Amino acid sequence: MTDSPIRKALPDFRWERVETLRYKAEGSAPFRDVTRQVLFGGDAMRCEWRYFEVAPGGYSTLERHEHAHAVMILRGHGACLVGDRVHTVGERDLVAVPPLAWHQFRADPDAPLGFLCLVDTERDRPQLPGPDDLAALRRIPGVADFIRTGDETDG
Amino acid sequence: MTDSPIRKALPDFRWERVETLRYKAEGSAPFRDVTRQVLFGGDAMRCEWRYFEVAPGGYSTLERHEHAHAVMILRGHGACLVGDRVHTVGERDLVAVPPLAWHQFRADPDAPLGFLCLVDTERDRPQLPGPDDLAALRRIPGVADFIRTGDETDG
Predict the structure, then answer these.
(1) What is the value of ipTM here, to two decimals?
(2) With an 8 Å Cβ cutoff, are A45 and B39 in contact?
(3) pLDDT tier at A2 (50, 70, 90 boundaries)?
(4) Nearest neighbour of B5 by CB, restricted to A4, A96, A120
(5) Cβ contacts (< 8 Å) between B72 and chain A: which residues?
(6) What does pTM read for this prediction?
(7) What domains can you pick out in chain A, each with its CATH number?
(8) Residue of A9, A72, A93 with shortest CB distance to B93
(9) H/E/C letters for each residue in chain A?
């Protein structure tokens, strides 16, 4: 008997036989309170389907890359930077992150932000913003206050 | 101003700027009461991300193909055949349909069955079962009563 093709949903947005992983290696890039679960990957398809969850007040890494992201919010609410604009997002909203667009997801203070995120299996590594990139982002109204780079004083 | 990267969720599992399409050409294959929405596709990634919804009592086509499906139930409940077994499925359950596994989704009589389905953009065409395939499937307890091929008398 091989593994069942079904993995049942468990409470709290977990799944049978799906491991809850750290988002990235601690210290490799700025982020706060994010978990990662790989729902589908491996050799069967050319994409990986992941579920990320940002805890209330947390944020994903501000980054960009050549590959695109296809995202659906599955749980809670928050906001995301895509390119040069910040958007509020909630359950089932779709987010398309185009190649080389700076992006960052933040959960609202009172809710998690859980989202499905699809990427090509073969993809380039994320780029972190340099000082010039950050200066440019900080000149954009609405973006300056939104982005988190790990240098903020906790308030 | 280009299109916003955000497409907000609308009531009844619709989305901004996402068209509700017919599942397949009527008469091309047996199915009942299924709609299709393409959430992400095109050149940006090597996969297509679709949302299918089977109305209460409806069913998708019994078929197989070389390409795999990665599925998450998003709405309602029902059952699915994968290979030689029928499984009940509900919200957020994951279903992996391996290459060449016969599969069919059915909504329960009292609920829709809406699911996200991921496929490679480059993929083979579905195969319908021939008489020998159907005879083999009908010899499997539990499968015989489950499958719908369009030949059933409406009860």
Answers:
(1) 0.95
(2) no
(3) low
(4) A96
(5) 39, 116
(6) 0.96
(7) 20-138 (2.60.120.10)
(8) A9
(9) CCCCCEECEECCCEECCCCCEECCCCCCCCCEEEEEEEEECCCCCCEEEEEEEEEEEEECCCEECCCCEEEEEEEECEEEEECCEEEEECCCCEEEECCCCCEEEEECCCCCEEEEEEEECCCCCCECCCHHHHHHHHCCCCCCCCCCCCCCCCC
